[in-house]
Design goal:
Shape: globular
Number of helices: 1
CATH topology of the largest domain: Neuraminidase
Structural class: mainly beta
Radius of gyration: 21 Å
Largest sheet: 4 strands, antiparallel
Strand order of the largest sheet: 1-24-23-22
Strand content: over 45%
Amino acid sequence: MKTLTKNLQSGRKLVLCFFLTMFTMLSFSLSAQNLLNKPEHVAWDQVNHRYLVTNYGNGKIVAIDTLGNQQVAIEGIPNCLGIHIVDTTIFITQGTHIHLYGLQSLAPLQTLTLYVSNWIDGMTNDSSGNLYAAENSGKVHKVRLSDLTDTVIVNGGLPSHLQDLAYDPVENRLLLVCWGTNSPIVAIDLETYAVSDLVTTTSGQYDGIVRDTNGDLYVTSWMSGGRVYKWEPPYTSGAEIFSQGHAGPAGLALNEERQMLAVPNFNGNTVTYLSLIPTGVVEQSKKPEIRIEGDQLVVNSSTACKILITAINGKQVFMESYGPGEIILPLKSALATHNRGFYILTVYTEICCDSVKYYFDKD
């Protein structure tokens, strides 16, 4: 987190459709009652096939399944920030504390209190049984998971307002992002704890970082209207604007199983899902077929799906789940209580989505 008043900043969410761009971007409030309140960080739970989202605004950890259904998993952690999963344990940062919960039971296990100057934010882990936590004041903590012993491995030499970190198993190093303007991406060698700049940048206000199995880095930034940047190894070229139009993009998660990024929008109370799969890779038989016939939305899907309708400004106005087969949705009935204008109709399954634009004439 940047400061404890980061909610004063604003952004604008941008919804892109799976087949209209090279990558998917799907952003919406994911249940009839949106439970997200200043979502700060996301973790992918590959055991239970769900996303776990910390919410700074209400102290709840919200679970979101792959069809977008939300439910409160854990509550009672005010101002919670980072979340990370190692084996069967969930780690959640809050101020000077790291709370441990069971992945299956969601029951509290233990609370670790660190000696910090302000607060702990993002976390990652290596393959040797260690958890690493970013302290906003510019320190990096190493927690040995076998006995929860805490050691400060870097105490200085880092840019201001440390936010998040990722582990690079190839080089055995940590990669860190900070909140400052023109802030570099910093590397910490885990053999020597030497600090160096991996990438110099002309942007900043970075909030989250993940590394995929190709070595590509994805970093969220609150600058320029809210962006996700991508750097490819060897990180000597400039960043690609992977996605933009986010409302305060914070601590993102990588879902390697479905090749997606989950980006929490702190100021938008949404999570945006970005596909890493180029258009056309998804099997044709698994893509939902959608079309407008008069004032009806006609969908043919081989799997269970959801239909989401949003106004052009991103406000959700309709969402319903359906089984496989043909679906005919009368749009004038679905939008009867809403104003005339353009709406985005999105059909999404567990692996992909497709969207069309529709003009609703209230007459």
